[in-house]
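We read letters as residues; the integers encode the fold. Take this protein.
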Amino acid sequence: MLDAKDLDAFTQDAQNWFKENTPRDTDFMLPLTFMEVGTDEQFHFLRDWQNKVYEAGYLGAHWPTEYGGGGLDKSFQDAATRAMAQERTPIMLNAIGLNWTGPLLIDRGSEAEKQKYIRGILSAEEIWCQGFSEPDHGSDLGNAQTRAVRDGDAYVINGSKIWTTQGNYADHMILLARTNPQAESKYKGLSFFLAPMKGEGIQTVPIRKLTGEYGFTQTFFDDARISADCLMGAEGEGWLIAMQTLEYERGARSGQAGGHVMMLSDPNDIIGLAKSAQLNGKPAIEDEAIREELVHLMTEARALGLASRRDKLQPLTQDRPMSLALGGKLSSTDFYQRLNAFAITLQGTRAAYYVGDDSAHDNGIWQRGYLNSFSATIGGGTSQIQRNIIGEHVLGLPKS
């Protein structure tokens, strides 16, 4: 039974620890999201930070102790995650592992897989990436063509995956590949692998983004051999496992390790920007239209926060159990894109300056946030696909 006094003490300890240990100044630019880790300096700094948080007991606090977790009630991890957000700590590096692979392993992995992988996910000793999307198939995940052919005690992989976040640093990949091209359904021909990334026939090529940063890669498999033990579940179950993985990514299923992997723009910061920005010779915040938009943004931010809390209270979501979970990703990514865009409009002529320009407001953090926001509206299924999912699975609308 949850002891409120223990939770209060843990919460206070977490707040004190992050207040004392959060790095405040670095001589290089810290990534705002896990999709922006593009330099060795950033990578090693964030890996060390995640390990430090884990060793302090504030990451994976509710995961089973036998696999390296803290074995506590989830409310303890939630308290630690809130303390991280409050102190604006650096992000957790191993996003794919903490949020998708780890929960998947705990829910349906074999005992051997749990023992082998979970502790390394929490400590950031082993970094994970995702091999779902392919260059020629866009969002049509079910049509993945990367091949995995059984050859004795191994599978031989050929094909390519794209938008592989941190692929050049990863030790493992959750890989969706086609094992049976002749299956009666394209979905039944897919299998799911916990594949190593270090080996012959595997090459990653960094992709330079519009922001000038890296973080994504394209991964090429050229007769790459992986052990048959890397298969998760049975052949042909890949689509079902991939769909469960995407439920973690979209926030529709819980079990994540905690921490934050995206440093979201603080809606309150835009008020300070509106006070300092000039519009027609006066502070922008004195303009009636600006004030009205600010009120709308603050209201929406509050609503998103309350919806997230409501989603955890089952009696309040019984009418449409998946609506808040599935809608949260769509609403929040759209909101933060609009928030950053509005902040840029407040800067007038300074809006054209970017990171590194002397005239950029706050070193171009709003411009950087806006450009990087597009990756969030694509990852885990584009906003258009999210609307289809909500329409079909939440509202029960027909596909046509």
